[in-house]
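Last lecture ended with a question: if I hand you only a sequence, what can you say about the shape of the protein? Today we answer it with a concrete record. The protein is Zeamatin, putative. Below, first the input exactly as provided, then the predicted structure, then a couple of comments.
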Amino acid sequence: MANWQFLLTLVLISFLGSEAAIFTLQNNCRSTIWPGTLSGKGPLLINGGTRLKPGRTMRINVPHKWSGRFWARTGCKFDQTGKGKCATGDCGGLKHCGGAGSVPPVTLAEFTLDDLNFYDVSLVDGYNIPISIYPYGGSGDCKKVECFSNLNPRCPKDLQVINNGKIVACKSACTAYNTPKYCCSGAYGSPQTCKPTGFSRIFKAACPTYYSYAYDDATSTFTCKDANYRIKFC
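The predicted structure:
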């Protein structure tokens, strides 16, 4: 290897190392979950999903300029080939989602990493379990996003997802009714025309820092610079 190639390799290693963020997934639930992830920009992490037992954590190196989401799959059963099904958050019936997104309703932790990082917890696709985000080691506002309320017991009947006689998730009004008013589409496709509804207000009252509908930016999008993040489930 020529000297200039060696020096370029060292520069790239140094750059990537200094820019990467550490994400720590923490299962604070009483049962096993299967975290899923989908990338909007950048590499697919942990092959799209894995298993996480109660009380366990997992560290992931996430590159600069990555964007994507994390969610929890619950009530999953997989065979030896990695095929199966989850009660909530399923991604194509696979243990490792491999680029498949989650089936709503599911709580989403969303990130866009750049010179300034943006992050939120969204209920736009509905809710299954609480998720909290704790930034650390960064600068700027870097506010935590947390909610410990279980929204399933207060979910309106039309939005409930039942599994084995138990409410395991709560649909968004958009998923349940698929109308422009609830999906912020068509004539309701702007912040001026799409306003909070009775359904989104239920979510917002329980979890004020969560995204409750498509244009809930003002109180639900947070920023931090050069931070690492702990994502706590339950």
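Comments.
1. The longest helix spans residues 3-19.
2. Residues 1-18 have pLDDT under 50 and may be disordered.
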